[in-house]
Amino acid sequence: MKLLAVNVSLPRTVSINGRTYSTGIYKSAVAGPVPLKRLNLAGDGQGDRKNHGGEYQAVYCYPQEHYIYWAEQLARVDFQFGQFGENFTTQELLENEVCVGDTFRISEAVIQVTQPRVPCYKLADKLGLPGFEATFLRANRSGFYARVLVEGTVEAGDPIALISKDPIGMTVAEVNAALYLDKGAIAAERALQIEALSPGWKRSFEKLLAKA
To answer: What is the pLDDT of residue 49?
Structure first.
């Protein structure tokens, strides 16, 4: 497992499809060591602090393997690391293997997986593909957010080491499907047992079960 790229961006204001908003999705790779703090990477920020950022969304990880998939699906050859708004472009950290609650060491830092990523229209705007957020969600190639348990400096090329597996053992893909694709009560109840699951996702599962 490896950290292939560290991507950051401070928020910028954009006007697309009749909407004007602030966003930090336009990330690009940076060279050299980058401090990873409790709430984000140095030089990174979020335009919408209501729905992005905070302790449980301190860093967003996305597998490099999915770049190949999307390049084929969308017939695109212009992708660069940071394309999907991720902070960490990773290798061998796939959603059907990584569990919510797993912890990993990257150089000096330790992170813990907290939730899948929920796409919004800003990703579709960046790609120039209206409605792509729905396509992204259905593919269940969400990537995942993590919180920072130990601050430290990280750099592209660093190895990523698994420290511990979550005892519930529910993968990122399973958690994402439980809330947005399959919506099964049994899976939702299992997800609520994950101590590390972000508060927002816990509330969403509680609402799902209340409707069941």
So the answer is: 66
